[in-house]
Amino acid sequence: MHLNREEILRNRSLWIERLLHPATRKGKNRLDDGNLRCFIGVGCEALNIPTSLKPNKEGKKPSNNLGVHLYLKEEYVAPKLFVELVGLKDESGSFGSRVKELKNTETLIELNDLTTKTTQELGRYLLSVIEGGDKSPFKPV
What is the dihedral of CA 69, 94, 81, 57, to 10 degrees? Predict the structure, then answer.
């Protein structure tokens, strides 16, 4: 999938708008628990990316090839489609280095699960680095 600059920025903006909404609250340790979503789960919802694996007719869940659960072999991951649509540097939402303004965290996953930062605080930060680059989870556009 190849997206142009405008498409990537539009997708990032949709995610940020949802994060900034006053009613958006964060969940921890998973994309979506039915009520709350982690930072990346909020983005998946904004971009209509499924965040749960539904059982098939036989009651078996499909393979986790989309990375829809945050825990996969002891590692946190975002859905590959989400990574592509918003142009994340990687599936953990890496900032490239520890970011002092974000409680010295290194990834969106750490920021979500290990701090009290709200979705609105993250939304404001992502808006300030929407073009990508250093201290941003986004690839430059």
Answer: -10
Domain count, the chain: 1
Task: Please calculate the CA angle 62-63-64 and round it to the nearest 5 degrees.
Answer: 115
**pTM of the predicted model, to two decimals?**
0.83
**Which residues face 107 on adjacent strands?**
94
Nearest to 69 by CA among 36, 43, 33: 33
Number of Cβ within 10 Å of residue 56's Cβ equals: 9
Residue 95 belongs to domain spanning: 5-52+67-128
Rounded distance between C-alpha atoms, residue 82 and residue 65, angstroms: 13
- The closest alpha carbon to 45, from 33, 56, 32, 58, belongs to 32
| pLDDT given at position 58 | 52
